[in-house]
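Project standup — Tuesday

K.O.: blocked on the structure for the chain from last sprint. Re-posting the sequence here as requested.
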Amino acid sequence: MSQPAFDPLSLDAQLCFAVYSTAHAFTAAYKPFLEPLGLTYPQYLVLIVLWGGDGISVGEIGDKLHLDSGTLTPILKRMEKAGLVRRSRNPEDERQLKVELTPEGRAIREKVRPAREQVVCTLGGDETPIGKLRADLMQVNQMLRATKMG
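H.V.: unblocked you, prediction finished:
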């Protein structure tokens, strides 16, 4: 019996689907850790950005997360209402909104640490292949963002 011919349009041949479904799996893996803290996965990503450099503009957060302000603004409003961040006008440029962590936003960092540790354990417990996979995916990301398809 012969093998069926490779079909580049089959679901099994799609890198985009593998990445898409894996993104959903990551969201699901983090949910049991984040939900009791009142966090969504996108809010967690915003916190990660702010833990790396507090007091930055909404635009800078959007650039790092590849989110537009229309997507990011409701996330930040909910985080501000929850007491995790404070938004204020940049005194040097009133058009810009600056986002700063509150003490609660800083303190929640240690509470979410077990989430990442559990995901690393689930993926084999070794940071080296995780780092390589991340670098490979970021390279694909950059290539796709640099190319105007269609």
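K.O.: great, moving the ticket to review. Helices lie at 15-34, 41-52, 58-65, 69-81, 103-122, 127-146. The chain has a mean pLDDT of 93.
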